[in-house]
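[09:14] KT: can someone run the structure on this one? pasting the chain below
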Amino acid sequence: MNHGFTYRETIGPREAGRSLVAHLAGRHAHTSEAEWQARIEAGLVRVAGEPAAAERVLARGEEVTWHRPPWEEPEAPLAFAVLHEDAELVAVAKPSGLPTLPGGGFLEHTLLHLVQRRYPGSSPAHRLGRGTSGIMLFGRTPAALDSLSAALRDRRTVKIYRALVAGAPSEDAFLVDQPIGPMPRNAQGTLHAASPSGRAARSRVRVLERRGAVSLVEVAIETGRPHQIRIHLAACGHPLAGDPLYAAGGGFQDGQATPGDLGYLLHAHRLGLPHPGTGAWLELECRPPAALRAAGEYPGLG
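[09:31] RB: done, structure tokens below
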């Protein structure tokens, strides 16, 4: 069981004039109005710091808080390794299966929570999907976070990943520049996928080993679109082996899989960037899991 969480929001002009229960049911559609009514009656919801009735009309600028009692979170690996730390940043090795940020029932079983326990005040400069392992950067000061975020946004970084893909690409090295954008995904609304009208995206792929039904590849990404590597490898006919979401062509597989579902192997292997404090070039490396190592690489690790 975690320690629960108190959610806070400030009422804006669009929300003003609605009843408390209607606002909450409309804003958090995954919970029914009847459930919100019960939470309000149980005293879990407050307006301006005071218990409020369900039909209380909200005014602009008021703060609404509601407390979610402790709940049992899904299991996840709860350990990380520190790759580099100094006064401005910390780089950690995220394990596959651990979400970066809260969501989907995860709160304390997240990399953010674990890192902040050890480095209070640190914030992630980017994000890795739940199934992706490898290098994650956290800024330890607001200035460092701004600098890291700007370097990533302005493409002043080198980001190289390892992945295991289905099949054997015919070329040893190739460029994928399939645009990526939101596409309809059943009742889940939209998710990012290959899209002719999407945003420009570029990935450079190099085959390290062909292993029959699967191949080990290295991917250098020049842009950072959501799920870019998974989509780009699928778009070129070689989706990540075991990926439950993306199919060959870059669209979705049948079924109800979500981006957080596991089954594939993807690892943030190397990252180069200007240090946020000194400006000197910083090279980081995180050893990949055994299945993502080439023959003879990292001898002695097994």
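[09:33] KT: thanks! The mean pLDDT is 95.
[09:34] RB: yep, looked fine to me
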